[in-house]
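Input record (one chain):
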Amino acid sequence: MAGSLHYSHHPHPGSGEPPEPDDLYAEPPPWDIGRPQPAFLALAEAGAIRGRVLDAGCGTGEHVLMCAALGLDATGIDLASRALRTAEGKAHERGRTARFLRWDALKLVDLHETFGTVLDCGLFHIFGSDDRAAYVDSLRAAIRPGGRYFMLCFSDRQPGEWGRVHKLARAEIEASFAEGWRIDSIEPSTIDITTDPDGIRAWLVALTRT
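The corresponding structure, as predicted from the sequence alone:
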């Protein structure tokens, strides 16, 4: 595992010191819904997820296992060992072949691998401006030219306070990917959670690495 434990990758209501990644999975967190997010499932069913797949901030692995079920070479990374153990257990129970690594998403260059598709549900929006730029650079190193990046993040339309999560405006996303990417679409979407039937107002972003 490369990198540090300086970030968590999902909503954590409240303030104060960032929680350790494993602390987020001491109990099932709201975003751990036991199935793929509908927005990503629709992409998979439409055939948009192709090639070798990386899920950045994979949690307990539902999107990795979704891709593995399609016969894709699927890898998930996270800093939460507890979540990764759960993901590996799911893969065994379901008879799926998938790889799970404890790895820092800001250090993808150190994997020395490239992917045709990167998925990101709830990781991009935890970064401040400096780390956001570093993460985009990290993604650029991991996605082959012509590869796709699909991201679900909190929208600025979502009310309330959400701790370290940055609720993003469309313009912020566009600015982050202004160089080296083609923005294919930024569409209103939803992140399902277990604690609110209405879910979280989100953006579904599709980009191509140029």
